[in-house]
Amino acid sequence: MASLNPDDERAEELNTLQSIYPELAIEHTNPFTAHIDLLVAPTIPLPGIFEPEHVVSRLAYLPAIHLDIALPAEYPANAPPLVNVSTTPSWLPSATADSLAKEAHSLWEEYGGAQMLFAYISYLQEAAETAFGLSEITLPSGLQAELESYSKRMKRELFDKETFDCGVCLEPKKGTVCYRMERCNHVFCVACLQDYYNNCIQEGDVNNVKCMSTECGETRGSKKNARLISPKELLQIPLALETVERYAKIKRKKKIEADPHIIYCPRSWCQGAMRTDKYPKITNVREMDESDSETDEPVKSATDEPLQADGPEKRRVGTKGMDRLALCEDCNLAFCTVCLASWHGDFVSCQPRDTSQLTEEDQASLNYIMRNTSPCPTCSVPCQKSYGCNHMTCFQCKTHFCYLCGAWLNPDNPYEHFNNKKNKACFQRLMDMAEGDMAEGNVQFGGARGAEQMAAFWEEEAMRIQMELDAQHS
Amino acid sequence: MSAGAKKRIMREYGECMADTPPGMKINFDERNMTKWEVLLDGPDQSPYAGGHFKLEINFPNEYPFKPPVVSFKTKIYHPNVSNDDKGSMCLGLLRADEWKPPNKVVAVLRLIQTLMIEPNPDDAIEPSIANEYKENRKEFEKNVKDWVKRYAK
Q1: Which positions fall inside the UBC core domain (chain B) (predicted)?
Q2: What is the pLDDT of residues A334-362, one digit of tens each?
């Protein structure tokens, strides 16, 4: 039967221990039993391997080890303490837990019957720093989410409690308003990070969107080491979604512009880049976590082909057959990267050409476009009506416009344009030429450029008549 | 200029006061804190020794995201300082693409002192002076001393 004498050596030891570790809890019912949770933060994050998928995740913090201590009446002189080491959820291999518990026995022997709990707890804390000698732990995948979120939460909690001197505003700031950079671990306050990156992105200076620290990649001559921050990380800081989208867009554009292998769409109203796997279109910046180097470095492609030296546009020479085919990423035009005409099939041989020089064929099609289409008032893409009323919706930008005069129409009430007497040219003409410009094989263009041509024709005609009259008078 | 930027300049001034690099005096006007006037003695181990130079440091509105602008108000014969009435400098830290927000004015002042002891002819704003510095050190030092006598006493 345990004596309740407060002068008991065991009670004294536990009380002393409690003043060192306030988190040590002594049982109310039995003053000779206690428990304590010890933080596990290995200096090198412990790789957790989650089976059966074999997902590896590096854990910087693991759920605390729970140490139960019970001191028998014979302790310390004649009996070792009874200890039990456990974890919730159970991530610590039982063999390791057992050997940690055994260590209590050997320490007790080493201390020759003296009080040894402090030494034991210190031993456990030290062992936790090296993850108890474990190089990895294998766990069922069911524990992955729990352990990962624990590690993240602990990291955040400990970070929040710290105070940092922000190197930009030079003020001490609480961890709660600071952010630690993912790659280099430098810490700045969120307000300064937001100010700086918003400013960079606003000015289009995307190559400065990297860690602000002077230690980051700024050693002379090798400043290219500094990496640009990924859109995903910018959102974590956090920056506004539209700012991050602008950042990703400019960055992509700069890369494309720096790449001599990219050919642009020959349609002058489009000029989109050719489709390529190298620069995928931006779909969701939330998932863009690559932190690439500066974009002004020339991109080295694996198959560096000889480039045409100078010219308005650098273009591949010696490319043959289907390799010449490119698709515009914006308007989907299939074109030839050598002659810049719309795709002519793989058997046609063709010559390099500047975009400014038009072939007869292109000139003819351009002339046709100039005569027989109406430009969209927003994006200028040429439109031709195949059938229907004169209220058009641009196929590219969805602008509503009038096919007769090219005027922009209010999408909420597009027909008002045709019902308003003020619009003399278009009043009551919604259904004019509803069968389309090419009805029954007759090209009868009814679009805005047709009206321009009509005006030009009558102007010339008037001039001619005037001159005839002048000639008669003289 | 944002309140944060002003606060930072105040702080930096405090730090400079507490630990002014030797041979330097900073005049600070609280009503116009974005313009500092610095009086700088030519470092002893340089041909500028004995000269007193007046500098102006202007903080841009975007400070500390953009570097401060330094100009010598006293004429100085130096490859890295423009030989005109502006006396401007543009190298190292002071360049927009090399400046990093945690850099401080103190670092800029130290850079200037270092450059007076050891000019950087490879990043010169005055190529002819840089050339002279490289090819004819004696002539260079003579000219420096001449100018010190004429302008910086």
Answers
A1: 4-153
A2: 998 888 888 888 888 887 776 666 667 77
> Given the structure tokens 């922009």, which residue do they identify?
A408
Picking from B97, B98, B101, the nearest residue to A168 by CB comes out as: B101
Among chain B residues, CA nearest to A207: B97
Query: Distance (Å, rounded) from C-alpha A137 to C-alpha A151?
Result: 15
Q: What global pTM score does this model have? A: 0.63
Q: Does B98 lie at the interface with A, CB-CB under 8 angstroms?
A: yes
Place of tokens 């930009």: A168
Alpha-carbon distance A392 to nearest alpha carbon in chain B (angstroms) = 48
Pick B102's closest partner by Cβ from A168, A171, A191.
A168
CA distance A428 to A425: 9
Please tell me which residue of chain B has the smallest CA distance to A167: B102
Q: What amino acid is encoded at A340 in this protein? A: L
Interface check B11 vs A, CB under 8 A: yes
Domain locations along chain A? 9-152, 163-253, 374-462
Residue A13 makes CB contacts below 8 A (sequence gap 6+) with: A71, A76, A115, A117
Measure in Å the smallest separation between the Cα of B64 and chain A Cα atoms: 7
Identify the band that residue A303 occupies on the pLDDT scale cut at 50, 70 and 90.
very low
Q: How far is A451 from chain B (nearest CA, A)?
A: 53
> What separation in angstroms does the CA of A361 have from each of A4, A287, A352, A358, B70?
107, 45, 15, 8, 61
* Positive or negative torsion for Cα B75, B76, B79, B81: negative
A184 touches chain B (CB under 8 A): no
The full set of domain ranges for chain B reads 3-151
Q: Does residue B86 belong to the interface with chain A, where contact is any CB pair within 8 Å? A: no
Condensed to tens digits (0 to 9), the pLDDT of residues A57-102 reads: 888 899 999 999 998 888 888 889 999 999 988 899 989 999 999 9
Backbone angles phi, psi at B98, to 5 degrees: -105, -20
Q: Do A167 and B102 touch (CB under 8 A)?
A: yes
> Out of 3.30.70.270, 3.40.50.720, 3.10.110.10, 2.60.120.1060, which CATH number does the structure's domain A9-152 have?
3.10.110.10
CB within 8 Å: A212 and B102: yes
Answer whether A357's CB lies under 8 Å from A315's CB: no
Fold (CATH) for A163-253: Herpes Virus-1 (3.30.40)
Give the model's pLDDT for residue A300.
Answer: 46
Nearest by CB to A199, from B4, B65, B100: name it.
Answer: B65
> Which residues of B are known to be catalytic?
90
| Chain B CB within 8 Å of residue A297 CB | no
Contact at 8 Å (CB) between A346 and A321?
A: yes
CATH superfamily of B3-151: Ubiquitin Conjugating Enzyme (3.10.110.10)
Query: A190-202 vs A241-258: helix axis angle to the nearest 10?
Result: 50
Judged on CB neighbours under 10 Å (0-12, 13-18, 19+), A328 is: buried
